[in-house]
Amino acid sequence: MEDPSDRLDNGKLDLVPMIDCIMLLLLFFILTTKFTDEEKGLAAILSDKGQAGHPIAELKPPITIVAYPAGMQRGLQPSAYAAAWAEVSANGGIPARVELRVGHSDPLLIDGEALAAKGPATAVLMKTINDYISGELERYELADVARKDLPEVDVHCFSGLPWKYAAVVYDAVRGFEYAKRGVTSQVDIAELLAERAISFAPPRVRDSSHELGNELFEIVNLR
């Protein structure tokens, strides 16, 4: 085996240690990199539409729809939201009232008991939610743009809430899309893929007050 000192004497460098260091640094950055919300939003905006002939100036950011326990003020620290949620969850675990908001609009206050029940009050509330979301989405309509090229709808439903809230929002958005196309239901998968995209923010760990506090901080202050 060749002595490393002989390689140096002959003007040769052993690159193996340097390659090992580069690989370790590369693995470190891959495993520790965390994309910010702004970078995630940029990826959602650009997607593959920039390659389809759409000018970047015409691309629009996603339309955010958020649902969280009522009474959560904007501008607090995650620890304050965690404490507020602990107080709410101590009284049965399900908030009595929930705020639903589309983008920068004023929130709609939802009665949790009416939504969970089955009766005339629930039907009235469902219509109110559908009308609210339809009215807000109407503000984002663009002329002469295909449905699939309209801004994506991004739903952020607080993980501490029942999934029924996310389902209600999804149904309301799809109902708006059906109304725009003049249909009452969706049975053709090809037509569904040609419609506006809807995505859901991933849920958090329900038994972690620290994580749920961070989630409330992000949702309440999201625009």
Could you explain how this protein is built, in words?
This protein is an alpha/beta fold and 223 residues long. The chain contains 9 helices and 5 strands; from the N terminus they run αααβαββααβααβα. The chain has a 5-stranded mixed beta sheet with strand order 3-2-1-4-5, sandwiched between helices. Helix 4 (78-89) packs across helix 9 and helix 6 (120-138) packs across helix 7 (164-181). The chain is flat, with a radius of gyration of 25 Å. The protein starts with a helix and ends with a helix.
Write the topology of this structure.
Elements: H1 4-9, H2 16-32, H3 37-46, E1 63-69, H4 78-89, E2 97-102, E3 108-111, H5 112-116, H6 120-138, E4 153-157, H7 164-181, H8 189-193, E5 198-200, H9 209-220
Helix pairs in contact: 4-9, 6-7
Helix content: 40-55%
Structural class: alpha/beta
The total strand number stands at 5
Shape: flat
C-alpha-based Rg, rounded: 25 Å
Biggest β-sheet description: 5 strands, mixed
Distance between the termini: 65 Å
Number of helices: 9
Strand order of the largest sheet: 3-2-1-4-5
Order of helices and strands: HHHEHEEHHEHHEH
Mean of residue pLDDT values: 78
Strand-residue proportion: 5-15%
- Which ranges are low-confidence, i.e. pLDDT below 50, for 5 or more consecutive residues? 44-58
Query: Oligomeric state of the chains?
Result: single chain
